[in-house]
Amino acid sequence: PYPGYQDMELSTKNLPRGLYGYTGLHWSTSILTKMTGVVLWTLMLLMFVLALFIIHQQTLKLKTECLSQGEMSIHHVFERYNAFLKFEERMKQLLQNDPSSSSETPVSAINKSRILSLIEQSRTSLEQNILMDETSFDSAAIGLLTAQGTFFTAKGTSDISAFLNKRCEEVLKTRIPSSDISFQEYDRLFTLTQSILTKQGTPAAVIAVAISKDLFNHKINAMRKNVFLMITLVVVLLSFPIIHYLQKWVVQPIRDVTDASKE
Question: pLDDT digit string (tens) for 67-83?
Answer without folding.
Answer: 888 888 888 888 888 88
